[in-house]
Specification:
The chain folds into three domains: about 90 residues, Winged helix-like DNA-binding domain superfamily/Winged helix DNA-binding domain (Arc Repressor Mutant, subunit A, Orthogonal Bundle); about 100 residues, 3-Layer(aba) Sandwich (D-Maltodextrin-Binding Protein, domain 2); about 100 residues, 3-Layer(aba) Sandwich (D-Maltodextrin-Binding Protein, domain 2), CATH 3.40.190. The protein is about 40% helix and about 20% strand. The strands form four sheets. Strands 4-3-5-14-6 form a five-stranded mixed beta sheet, sandwiched between helices. Strand 8 and strand 9 form a beta hairpin. The longest helix is centred in the first third of the chain and has 22 residues. The chain is elongated.
Amino acid sequence: MDRLKCMEVFVQVVRAGSLSAGAAACGMSAVTATRHVQALEARLGQPLLRRSGRRQVPTDLGERYYTECAEVLARVETADALGDGSPARALLASAISRPVGQIRVSAPTTVGSHLLMPIFAEYLQTHPDVALDLALKDRAVDLEEEGIHAAFQAGGNPEPGLVAHTLRGVTRVACASPGYLARRGVPRQPADLAGHDCLGFRYDEVLGRWEFAPAGASGDARLIAHNPLAQLQAAVHGMGIALLPEYLLAPEVEAGRLVRVLEAQAQLSEPMHLVHLAGRYVSSKLDDFVRYMVAKLGPEACPVASSA
């Protein structure tokens, strides 16, 4: 069977929610539409549709395959439109070539929910045919295994096999509550941390380290948290000194619940990266998403206002 026709049938079935309605949209019988979908499933070796009540819904693979098929068909329509120079046809081609479908994105929990969310909101407003499936994970992700199109990674060097786009680094600042500083005193230099309770952070089972100079200047970690938001609340409640991203602690400082300390030694963390798999076709929607994010968050971009 013609593969493009099979893709067209599959896309119509997913959009309509049933084989019969998808078949009607393609001008064929439900039996014929079923054969077209089965041809794709035989080629892929896995089912693309499953029944849910009275509807036919895509499987996990079917959802990803639908997104790619929709884009392939859009590109074909755009190519066909090149032969017609009429304004109406040009507008149609432009509409068809817009990014469409779902993009699966991964990011650390706090980065995604605080730093990136305002940018995602702007992106979705200007890309009405795109949906973001956001996975917030405080661990390393396997893009291929987990079906992730693009991942924001904080610090470190991206693994081999990934295309990495450098983003602006995140400034981290030491802070504590006014009550804690009144009890324990204000550290004036990194060496003073030896007499303080420092709040540790564990990421993907690796204990994060404070990187003040001189090397090794630190205090005892009375609390180790797996989430920066927990660190933030611990600092607000006077449990010690935390080293937190500026965008996260700024609202607390403005409200007077936290005070910055050791500002002269504030660290600019290793740059964030936006990565995707290398050595394969990059869809137009992913390419557009990456370009948009780099324009907003790249090293040369203006700083993003933090969200309260």
